[in-house]
Amino acid sequence: MHAMRYAITLPADYDMDVIRERVATRGHALDEFPGLGLKSYLIRERGVAGSPINQYAPFYLWRTPAGMNDFLWGKGFQGICDDFGRPVVQHWLGLAFEHGPAHADSPISATTELTTLCTAEPCTAVTSAVADLAAHATTPGVHCTALAIDPRTWELLRYTLWCAEPPAGTGIHFQVLHLSRPELDQLPTGRHW
């Protein structure tokens, strides 16, 4: 599994209905994309749920590197570049994935939490984070959750889709406008090594 996202921060007075319309008319394009576990079409809206900014920030869990490459070097990503310019694409290696108790429902929100490993023993920290993810996955309202790492910066990312409003203190909150999930059920659960 590979995690990927790009965030397009928009002007403070940007009409976020433009993004909602974009997702409503184009979001289905990846509903059957090979190699894609899921793509969540996420937004943050200034003044909503404490967000200080307007942002369009799609998040992906790729089941295969071939699928991710096909998206980045094919028509999929070019549409973003054509409309918004080429954003920085963040990428993390997958460490673990879990379904939550609300897996059968439709998610309405998502959270991302980044933490930097501050230990000389990354294996101990990662093992602990994987155990924490398994416990987190049992939280009521969790649709699914993933743990990934950027070994360049030693940042851990915990990404969670929620079928209810997430509890306070669970990272940066996003609204989910659409979820493409062509191979979500094929993502392996538990730790990925």
Layout: helices, strands, pairs:
Elements: E1 2-5, E2 8-10, H1 17-26, E3 36-44, E4 54-56, E5 59-62, H2 65-73, H3 75-84, E6 90-99, E7 109-116, H4 122-136, E8 142-150, E9 155-162, E10 172-180, E11 190-191
Antiparallel strand pairs: 1-5, 1-6, 2-4, 3-4, 3-5, 3-10, 6-8, 6-11, 7-9, 7-10, 8-9
CATH topology name, in short, is: Alpha-Beta Plaits
Number of domains: 1
The topology string of helices and strands comes to: EEHEEEHHEEHEEEE
Proportion of helical residues = 10-25%
Q: Architecture, CATH level 2?
A: 2-Layer Sandwich
- Helix/strand/pairing category: alpha+beta
- Mean pLDDT across every amino acid position: 96
How many helix segments?
4
Assembly category:
single chain
Beta-strand content estimate: 35-45%
**DSSP strand tally:** 11
Shape: globular
Characterize the structure shown.
The chain is α+β, with helices and mostly antiparallel strands. The chain has one domain (2-185): Alpha-Beta Plaits (2-Layer Sandwich), CATH 3.30.70. Helix content is 23%, strand content 36%. The chain has four helices and eleven strands. The chain has helices at residues 17-26, 65-73, 75-84, 122-136; strands at residues 2-5, 8-10, 36-44, 54-56, 59-62, 90-99, 109-116, 142-150, 155-162, 172-180, 190-191. An eight-stranded antiparallel β-barrel has the order 1-5-3-10-7-9-8-6. The radius of gyration is 16 Å and the shape is globular. 33% of the residues are buried.
